[in-house]
Amino acid sequence: MVSEGQHANAAALRALHGGGIFVLPNAWDAGSAVMIAAAGAQAIATTSAGVSWSLGRPDGQNLSREEAVAAVARIAAAVDLPVTADIESGYGADPRDVAATVAAVIEAGAVGINLEDSGAAGGGLFDPAAQAARIRAARTAAADAGLPELVINARTDVFLFQIGQPEGRLDDVLARAAAYAGAGADSLFVPGLLDLGTLATLTGAVALPVNVMVGPGAPDVAALGAVGVRRVSLGQAITQAAYTLVRRAAAEALTAGTYDSTAGADSFGDINGAFPAR
Is the distance from CB of 98 to CB of 72 less than 8 angstroms? Predict the structure, then answer.
């Protein structure tokens, strides 16, 4: 049953899309979510890459629905912020699979989802009509679960996977954006696109708020906001940095016998104190 707190978090996440630009750091477990909350985040997204790595496997539709939902539940239980769940391609191609996943992540405490259009048979993208049907199934499932205000972030991987000829990609995204908006999407996620000129054209042509994925070398938040981007996700970037530190620190201790890689870390007390007793 959806609680009043979950309805309030859904309203808060939806309101963030109403003006200006906001940043969504991505968590992969309860501990990373607590650290992101302690940094002052207004909302938290999950990262399928980070969750997959935390379970010892690669990203890319290698989680089961149950594993993804369990991660969402742990994260949502650890923080009081709105949590939006990366459900990859919905853990099944059929709209009924998407509906089952949406119902499960709502029960786990999520108030938003990312649903991507990759994952079709043969490894390509679902065509716009098929993906629109999957988005409609997500919207209906949210209403049936008692959270009609669920924020659906419709992800298209045209630029990320360089689908089609370069000159036709923006038109493909525009057509998909129209289909996805008509099916009930609340925002448009276009990972792989960071060219400011192209983003300005896109944000000026679509009704949906536009979400991009950033990392080192990407335009800063102010520059993205100036061209109309409304939502910035860090994707797996924080997880990459954390896992890189694990490997480097372990290698340093095992080879050089020193520990400099861990210098600059927050104190034990500062980290431990960020976790409330529950």
Answer: no
pLDDT of 246-266, one tens digit each? 999 999 999 999 999 999 999
pLDDT score for 219:
98
| Band of residue 39 on the pLDDT scale cut at 50, 70, 90 | very high
CA distance 87 to 113: 7
Residue 106 forms part of a structural domain: yes
3-state secondary structure 164-176: CCHHHHHHHHHHH
Q: Into how many domains does the chain fold?
A: 1
The two most distant CA atoms of the chain are separated, in Å, by: 59
Burial pattern 119-150, b for ≥16 Cβ within 10 A else e, equals: beeeeebbebeebbbbbbbbbbbbeebebebb
Rounded to an integer, what is the distance from CA 198 to the centroid of its chain? Answer: 22
- Taking alpha carbons only, the member of 95, 101, 98, 160 closest to residue 125 is 160
Instruction: Give the residues across from 46 on adjacent strands.
Output: 27
Q: What is the dihedral of CA 63, 64, 69, 72, to 10 degrees?
A: -10
CATH number of the domain to which 188 belongs: 3.20.20.60
The pLDDT score that the predictor gives to residue 59 is 95
**Measured distance CA(110)–CA(112) in Å, rounded:** 6
The sign of the CA dihedral 130, 133, 135, 138 is: negative
Domain of 168 in residue numbering reads as: 4-273
Give me the pLDDT at residue 113, please: 98
pLDDT digits (tens, 9 = 90+) for 118-144: 999 888 999 999 999 999 999 999 999
